Amino acid sequence: MTQWINLPAIGNILLLGLVFGAGLPALVAVGVTMLDTGRTSGTDGTERVAASPARQTVAYLCFAVVLAAIAFGIYEVVTG
């Protein structure tokens, strides 16, 4: 560590930026993908199929983690 550059702090900023800047949007993408059934509707648009309960559970857990991270960020800003 030099007098002008704090490498551990830069490493922490890089790690948190990757986790929150790329990780949370990726988690939302996983949640949306889990809700997709992969089936297309017919020409009249009548076919509607829900995702399996296991996939829905994984999707909702992904969304819950993202919401918890947002709430924690707001809490840190307010109390910080």
Question: Can you walk through the features of this model?
Answer:
The protein is mainly alpha-helical and 80 residues long. It is 70% helix and 0% strand. The protein has two helices and no strands. Helix 1 (7-35) runs antiparallel to helix 2. The longest helix has 29 residues, at 7-35. The model has no long low-confidence stretch (mean pLDDT 86).
Tally of individual helices = 2
* Shape designation: elongated
Q: Tally of extended strands? A: 0
Q: What proportion strand?
A: under 5%
Q: In percent, how helical is the residue content?
A: over 70%
Structural category is: mainly alpha
User: Gap between N and C termini, in Å?
Assistant: 27 Å
Q: What's this model, at a glance?
A:
The protein is built from two helices and no strands. With 80 residues, the protein is mainly α.
Observed structural traits:
80 residues, mainly alpha, elongated, 70% helix
What layout of secondary structure does this protein have?
Elements: H1 7-35, H2 53-79
Helix pairs in contact: 1-2
